[in-house]
Amino acid sequence: MTARPQSGQRLLEVKRLSKSFPIRKGLLRKVTGAVHAVDDVSFEVEAGETLSLVGESGCGKTTTARCVVGALDATAGELTYYAENGAAIDTRSAAGELRRRLRRDVQMVFQDPISSLNPRMMVLDIIAEPLLVHGVRNRSERQDRVAELMRLVGLRPEYMQRYPHAFSGGQRQRIGIARAIALNPRLVVADEPVSALDVSVQAQVVNLLLDLQDQLGISYLFVAHDLSVVKHMSDRVAVMYLGRIVEITDTVSLYEQPMHPYTEALLSAAPEPDPRSKSRRIMLAGEVPDAANPPTGCHFHPRCPYAVERCGIEKPSLDARANGRRVACHRADELNLVGVAEETIA
Amino acid sequence: MLQRSQGSVPNRPILSVRDLRTGFAMRDGFVAAVDGVSFDMHEGRTLAIVGESGCGKSVTARSVLRIVERPGKIVGGEILLRRKDGQVDDLVGFGQDSKDLRAVRGRDIALVFQEPMTSFSNHYTIGNQIGEMLRLHLRLSQRETRERTIEILGRVGIPSPERRIDEYPFQLSGGLRQRVMIAMALSCGPRVLIADEPTTALDVTTQAQILDLLRSMQQQTNMAMMLITHDMGVVAEMADDVAVMYLGKLVEYGPVDKIFHAPRHPYTRALLRSIPSIRAKPRSRLPVLQGSIPSAVLRPTGCPFHPRCEQAMAGTCDRDMPQLLPASNDVEVSCFLHHPPESLSTTASGVAS
């Protein structure tokens, strides 16, 4: 059914990644503190799979994604990319030919389809730019490839001489996707690629991303806040809160049997499009705290309905459980949390 | 959970909008953003106006308060507000900056905006901004104003309101700012509250808190609420009645349960099907609504939805505009599938001629 390689072959390994931004104050811009946007995050992405990073604003999901593509330089940790020939490339120090390979193999799709396309460039040039940069010098060859890519993402090649403003939001997102897959990447990092789109158009782009994955065997690192979209897209999900991963496991287990209280609360807070649904809602107190001044111990403890004294003192480690699940909660084994069941009839 | 009133609809609406038309005079000609919209709002009930971008839901909300920005203009219809003494005023008849209209805005009909950051002034304390409403509308003294403001801030769940009242909007988090916005809207005890995407800019866990607050405020005050949103999840949770809009037209209008469980208009059906579900099978494809929303400048002829409609009938849907007509005792729909053109010509001939 699917052409996706489910080989368990490792593509990306993120180990103890941290990224902090300095807070500067006063006339001399003295560093007075730091925002720990990403704090000791580890995960892997396997060939052909989709791993989603979910969480609310300020949880560090976008910062993590930007460190992976190299748009931000990590403060600490290891980012290893495994090339097709098996070579391990340290993405933070890669130079020369290795760096070029990395740039070709790891691509990005952005959230905002308007600001991520240059309004003064024709669609042809936008999609062809990565080809040009990576050495496709022949103009007609580039043009043929752009036509092929446009067909692949559901755009009409006749429109390649038009400018971005002539396209709708959904079509612009397709242009961004065509540009990202132009060099046959192995990993596409997609940062909220459908959240700026209307529902009816969002569905089209979700389907397109799934189809492209089946056809081309790409892996996605999918960053999103919408748990419903994530359910449709992912093989595995990592839930983040205030810079840390609190739970990571396969999609079905995460939604049906969450083991972290934050995952449970997040699932229960998502409004369901059914007036008859009688979901039990867990109302969390307060809001996500300031990342410059995070709570002690478990970051979630001030809002957690199950918190005990220990949670405020000791930072829980992301411990392994059955079936490759990892959870960072002191009480994960004693709590019996509620998830959302899969619908039997579509 | 909210109890949904079944059949106990108070017979006299507090606000009735009839055949509202609002448009913008552009270089390319007149663009109708709201094109003949009618609905009723009742005490203690919530009407959700739902649709995708460009459907005219926000312009509808702004038209009711007469705050559509130029070159936008109401060109037809009635906005009928029933006063406490039973007298009915047509807000369209009031002058744009008249005293009568200013007395309605904020006092009888209040508004909660989507973006709490841009709708406050950062140069005044929140106490000052809420107090302005109380002084203007209720003519309270300075001391009464302060007491009342602290009381309202406490009611919407702001911790230590006697300290927060002297803070500036930028000192508050997004969720608290939206609570202050709701406090301000409720300060003069409005009978109608319009909430334009009140939770769109918020995180899900904060959204849950704000929806809960709006619901409990409505239970306390029995106000009528108009909820403008694109999120069907929010609609399902909050609304009693739903009006679905597409390109300036109401395409379907009825009680929430009927809209979600027995949708009649092809657009409503397609829209509901295309929503990603938290209960879906992972990696399952979504049923897709083809194409995208046309711009209001290039509005299709006939039914505005016909180019994307799988059941469009050539020669009918692309030529004539269907009317919003009753499809059952409580649902109205504008679609030729439900009101074939033959029956239309007999029932609507009196109106058309």
Task: Describe this protein's structure.
The complex is a heterodimer of chains A (346) and B (353). With 346 residues, chain A is of the alpha/beta class. Chain A contains nine helices and twelve strands. Chain A has helices at 61-69, 96-105, 123-133, 139-152, 169-181, 199-216, 227-233, 251-256, 261-269, and strands at 10-25, 30-46, 50-54, 76-82, 88-90, 106-109, 187-191, 219-224, 236-241, 244-250, 319-320, 326-327. In chain A, the strands form two sheets. In chain A, strands 6-7-8-3-9-10-12-11 form an eight-stranded mixed β-sheet, with helices on both faces. In chain A, strands 2-1-4-5 form a four-stranded antiparallel β-sheet. In chain A, helix 3 (123-133) crosses helix 4 (139-152) and helix 3 packs parallel to helix 5. The longest helix of chain A has 18 residues, at 199-216. Chain A is globular. With 353 residues, chain B is an alpha/beta fold. Helix content of chain B is 31%, strand content 22%. Mean pLDDT of chain B is 89; it is low at 1-9 and 346-353. The interface between A and B is large, with 53 and 51 residues.
Break the fold down into its secondary structure elements and pairings.
The complex is a heterodimer of chains A (346) and B (353).
Chain A: E1 10-25, E2 30-46, E3 50-54, H1 61-69, E4 76-82, E5 88-90, H2 96-105, E6 106-109, H3 123-133, H4 139-152, H5 169-181, E7 187-191, H6 199-216, E8 219-224, H7 227-233, E9 236-241, E10 244-250, H8 251-256, H9 261-269, E11 319-320, E12 326-327
Chain B: E1 15-26, E2 29-41, E3 46-50, H1 57-64, E4 72-82, E5 88-90, H2 99-104, E6 109-112, H3 126-138, H4 142-155, H5 161-164, H6 174-186, E7 192-196, H7 204-221, E8 224-229, H8 232-238, E9 241-246, E10 249-255, H9 256-261, H10 266-273, E11 325-326, E12 332-333, H11 341-347, H12 349-352
Parallel strand pairs in B: 3-8, 3-9, 6-7, 7-8
Antiparallel strand pairs in B: 1-2, 1-4, 4-5, 9-10, 10-12, 11-12
